[in-house]
Amino acid sequence: MKKFIWPVRVYYEDTDAGGVVYYANYLKFFERARTEMLRAMGYEQDQLMAEGIIFVVRSIQVDYLIPARFNEQLQVSADLSLVKKASFDFEQQITRGDEVLCKGIIRVACLDVQTMRPKAIPENIQEQLKNEC
């Protein structure tokens, strides 16, 4: 799977009064792609919660390069770049054709649902994530 791509269309609700995507909505697009990548790998967030773990964003670095606009069709990528004991990093991009509109590095941490403290990623998930790097 290496680089996962999720298509997104920009809806009116994603934009500001000028028809440009509001900056925080790029983070939502990134989130959708990460969630869909995990789903494609066989991991549903609600099932993970039932097993006592959740994945949460720990840190994010974003560069906004070119604005996206209302009704455009975009591609959002999610590419695992680092897997550690209790966290993993994604390198993500939002593109329109060959143009990179936005890019980011997102660190996701694994937490225990009850304590909300860091918890080791289960070995089977950790191995599958490492295979995607």
Describe this structure in words.
The protein has 133 residues and is α+β, with helices and mostly antiparallel strands. It has a single domain (3-132), classed as Hotdog Thioesterase (Thiol Ester Dehydrase, Chain A, Roll), CATH 3.10.129. It has helices at residues 23-40, 45-50, 123-132, and strands at residues 3-9, 53-64, 73-83, 87-96, 99-112. The protein has a 5-stranded antiparallel β-sheet with strand order 1-3-4-5-2. Strand 3 and strand 4 form a beta hairpin. The longest helix has 18 residues, at 23-40. 23% of the residues are buried. The model has no long low-confidence stretch (mean pLDDT 96).
Helix-strand pattern? EHHEEEEH
Report the structural category.
alpha+beta
**Total helical segments:** 3
Mean pLDDT: 96
CATH architect. name: Roll
Uncertain segments of ≥5 residues (pLDDT<50)? none
Shape: elongated
What is the C-alpha radius of gyration, as a whole number of Å? 15 Å
Q: Provide the domain count.
A: 1
Tell me about the biggest sheet? 5 strands, antiparallel
The strand order across the widest sheet is 1-3-4-5-2
The oligomerization state is single chain
> Helix fraction?
25-40%
Strand content: 35-45%
* CATH level 1 name: Alpha Beta
CATH topology: Thiol Ester Dehydrase, Chain A
CATH 4th-level superfamily: Hotdog Thioesterase
Distance between the termini: 9 Å
Question: How many strand elements?
Answer: 5
